[in-house]
Protein: Nicotinate phosphoribosyltransferase
Organism: Noviherbaspirillum suwonense
Amino acid sequence: MQRYSERALLTDLYEVTMLQAYYLRRMNQTAVFELFVRRLPDGRNFLVAAGLAQLIDYLESLRFGEDDLAWLRECGRFDPGFIASLNDFRFTGDLDAVPEGTVMFADEPVLRIRAPLREAQFIESRLVNLIHYQTVVASKAARCVIAAQGRTLVDFGLRRAHGAEAGLLSARASYLAGFDSTATALAAPLFGIPVAGTMAHSFVQAHASEADAYAAFAQAFPDNATLLIDTYDTIAAARMVVPLAHWLWEEERTRIKAVRIDSGDLGALASAVRGILDAGGCPDIGIFASGNLDEFAIAALVAQGAPIDGFGVGTRMNTSSDAPYLDCAYKLVEYDHRPLRKRSAGKAFWPGAKQVLRRARSDGGLQEDVLALADEDQPGDGLLQPVMRAGKPLAAGPALSGIRARVRAQIAALPPALRLLKATQPYPVRVSEKLQRLAGEVDAAQERQAAMDQARWEQDAE
Amino acid sequence: MQRYSERALLTDLYEVTMLQAYYLRRMNQTAVFELFVRRLPDGRNFLVAAGLAQLIDYLESLRFGEDDLAWLRECGRFDPGFIASLNDFRFTGDLDAVPEGTVMFADEPVLRIRAPLREAQFIESRLVNLIHYQTVVASKAARCVIAAQGRTLVDFGLRRAHGAEAGLLSARASYLAGFDSTATALAAPLFGIPVAGTMAHSFVQAHASEADAYAAFAQAFPDNATLLIDTYDTIAAARMVVPLAHWLWEEERTRIKAVRIDSGDLGALASAVRGILDAGGCPDIGIFASGNLDEFAIAALVAQGAPIDGFGVGTRMNTSSDAPYLDCAYKLVEYDHRPLRKRSAGKAFWPGAKQVLRRARSDGGLQEDVLALADEDQPGDGLLQPVMRAGKPLAAGPALSGIRARVRAQIAALPPALRLLKATQPYPVRVSEKLQRLAGEVDAAQERQAAMDQARWEQDAE
């Protein structure tokens, strides 16, 4: 049996019903779909695109397994010829996309699929599912990185992430956005991400005394122990760490790496604990903070000068709690060489296969983006690049280290106001004249068609 | 290779580091942990417990695969004897839990693990991950069910759910909370949940005309077609559906089931479309609405009498967008027969193995819950029931139909104010005198121990 996350039926049923309707009408000309975000969440100035590596895996491995076909036969609403046709169903199309770690804005396509209609349509649900979530997390995590101003950041969020895949992929997305490591162990063998781990309150509780717990942990992980000091009384625990640290050094030549504070007024406690450790001759023991942190809490602690060396950031980053979803859409922009768009209230989009041209100033800072037709000759760097052709990746994907470097460089190149944690004047994204003209033509053609339709049906009805 | 979602390393690294420290100290007496929610999200009056079936699967199948052990060996920080001991690591403990679909309140344990310390500790991360997410979704979905007052509800949220498992498990959690079906196809073969699906805007766009698209779909799914009518102009599309419906009936004896509106002022459009369909002799064509819906939007549409027969509810339910996480914790309450708790600021909890006793009035309505020690003799129905003993489930889990019935009955038994969509006077959860006394004793014992510790370390330091 396939992994459930790789089953073709991990999709919306309507992808299958539409496929059957296309099959019965023999519709399968070339379609172009694009994925974009309609508007940024409140308070946000940019997105960080992520998830492309997992999308490529999905597109390469997409096939209906015997389990999937058996269910389609059993459920009684599908045509046998149609079901048989799914035996050979593969993704054979082209994918163009912005590289992972690219900073993006509203209305800009992050990827473009050009494929036979049925393939391009069917992949919608899982494609959005994969790109949306990692983009949500990378965009949130990048804000934490900005707020932390160089302090260590560790992803702590597996337990309250929304399921297994969210736990794993948020470790990846936060790392590529600039986090230093994750607590999620499986992210190390699967993605090569550094992992970090300390102890839980239960570890302190289970020992006969807090000092016993600290000694046991330090002896199990010489030179690498971070001790959790807020189980009972943070200040009293810090006072106990001082003689323990000296004893461990003198008896066993072992150092304590850090202490962790997970509750209370983190800034005030960190200052008091720093004072106790320094006065006790332990200036090398670091202070790590965790507990309900996000970019706002981190920025506040940094602004007040709290002596905190690193932050464990969990739930609020992994669920992107203030903006847990993006208003994104995967839309048909061309079918059989005919550019298209819909006009639904508040949900119109730009027709035709497009490109984003990014223009920089002479100092390397970003100046503006232009949303244009893919075949327009416009100055600027085209963000969408060829990734797959005829269903095959053109090259191995970039290493996570390269993606991290891209995020760093792109955020550094943003106009400074866009790096603030509150919404500011949006980054300028201009729509080319040719694209604006095309949109008007597409709407006019659709209106003519609708009028003809209406007339025909009214005539039929008479 | 195991599925990633079943790998033992899908856990926080600290679960492994603590295990090594326990191994080296030979600590493995019986521990009792409980999972509870510290406080309800803003605006919420109750939770619906969910996820137990997936937790049982996890506990039964937990083992370190060769891949997991290989990584532990490679990463260099673990003791070879410890790693070898993980070869035989299994969950051999007891699980008591409230049945899925039980209505719960703050501070009440939803489950209790009693097992050798290492097992009880190690399972923490994935246990919380599994119970937390489904409880988040079931609690949100139950509010949508209350708001919909009997109208059909369909889960539409796979694409913006946080990953594959979230998509699948939110289909399950929303169905058990009372949704009628899901659009996520794989939920049918995996969980036996009814699935529903219509068409996307792209389907309308790809056809030469809107009427062609509708005819193609109706012919592919006779008597079962729901037509999406907001791609260009909702009112014009509804006017076209009337003659099309008559034509389909006269030519092919096929009925159109419903139309779907996905944008704009859903209430006003539904009224207008209802008028057009009724005036055109199509009173049997239903109206289905979708687009940014949650319990508040549904309640507003129902209150204004919008003629909507069913709602597709996606992103805001699957991400629980107004409360994407619960402040839940899995805490050690007893070790080696010693009751325990921590006292961290704002994060204290009740010590000892506990039970929740639920008391009903003579009319069946809920009166109050009592949080008591598990061995107290208190009136009321004990919510926590034996589920696993010595690592094995005691019985097959209940069918989803039974869980749905439980949710319905429990929500019907709530004091009416608690069924409102805004926060109200909290449901009374009393803490037994014996439990309050025990908490005081545990704190006093810990303080004595801390004082002894402090004195000893200060002496050592001199």
Remarks:
- Residues 46 and 105 of chain A are 5 Å apart (CA to CA).
